[in-house]
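S1.2 Input.
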Amino acid sequence: MFNRNRFLRRVAAITSLSLVTGCGLLSDGDPDDQGPIVVGTTSAPSTLDPAGAWDGSWELYRNIFQTLVAYPNGATTPQPDAAAGCAFSDSTSRTYRCTLRAGLKFSDGDPLTAEAVRHSIDRIRAIDAPGGPAGLLGSLDRVETSGDRVVVFHLNQPDATFPFVLATPAMSIVDPDDYPAGSLREDAEVHGSGPYRLRSYEDGQAVLVRNDTYQGFAKPKNDAVTIRYFKDSAGMVKALREKRIDVTYRGLGADDILALQEHDSRNLQLVDGAGTDISYLVFNPEDPWARRPAVRKAVAQIVDRGAIAHKVYKDTVDPLYSMVPRGLTGHATGFFDDYGDPSVPKARRILAGAGITRRVPLTLWYTTDRYGSETALMFQELKKQLEGSGLFTITLKSRPWNSYVVGYQKGRYPVFGRGWSPDFPDADNFIAPFVGEHNALGTPYPAKEITGRLLPHARGESDRAKTVEDVEAAQQIMVDDARLIPLWQGRQFVAASVDISGGEQALDPSTIMMMWMLHRKTSW
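S1.3 Output.
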């Protein structure tokens, strides 16, 4: 049987050995002349325009655009980046004022002014792209400017999380001359003001070079990074072993993680860190079966998260019993508290109580190229569990991410799988994006008690430790509705060649890689 504790001890030993010998991910160094650092990932951007994406595209945005505030290495609260300083200017957390650094420029030489910031934020709401980040700005009333350097955000309600929203790559500052106010930019050109310029984006890769006009907290330790996008973990790890890439991030499969740990410790580094990525099921309220609470609750009663974590993911993920993951203030275990261990008899009673005595037909959808190589295996395991109960007949269907998104946004899927990486490290971000008439899932979920009372009350509290009662109450409502069923919480794995440093430091609280922290060691 797979020994999870032994696995974690071995990973820790590899990391510790790297630190002691100076061959690890934490040593400092200067860029050398051995060419760009090449990073592999399975999370390709869906669009190059920040107004159009609320997904893994943010990985690229963080490195080529600036936001007013962001997360320096080691920070858990936003710090000034394009801004020289930001603060609430009133006691009610309804007016947030930022002053820009002097002399900011976009990579094409155009000045970055307060008007560019206002334009960038306003166009997100004006475009309101399907799958876009407009939902993050629900508490924003209007943006005003004063001169070239002062931006004032007026909120429609107290919102202590607003600085966290501004720190997301969705709020990247774009040049008004290049990005239309009412539509998305569709070409492959990017003019940002971040640590890197995007030299090219084609043939499955993004070529980044240092932006010498950048002003912000980042201190790039390399001159160039190339990001290569792979379809699966196997191809990415093969490229790492063959030294065609230097680092892998996002999309490492469980079998590949174990193989890297067991067989590649002399040539490669593997870091296992805490993570807050989650995986969950979404039920469409328009589907005649998925809309019935008894059906959703019966699924929740049958799903064996432990089996998924162990059999499919080889214990590289952990079972999750709330939409708010462990490690965040307010995390609860409502699905375990209410349902306990998986039980077919209990599920049968739930359905019978609603007058359902036949097998329930459900079609479960998943994406083939977004959340890692195990996604298909996980849905096969879900089908096995649900059909094995004798209560369901399950059909599995799948699509690549770009067409998959269109399908769930148009309400075509009865039940579908989604993953979530945090926009910012707060429980609010694991509740608010999924509720309301317009949300990140494209499936209306009114939840008026959550959107009308609990979240507004919690957002008015600057001391986030005091939001626990509201956060727990919101989670319980989500358990009672079973519109969203959490499955697992992930961890962060970074694999790298032994001559690469900075991998662990490159991860911010939103599990986005800050490419500027990577560098080659000057000696080995």
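S1.4 Remarks. The two ends are 38 Å apart (CA to CA).
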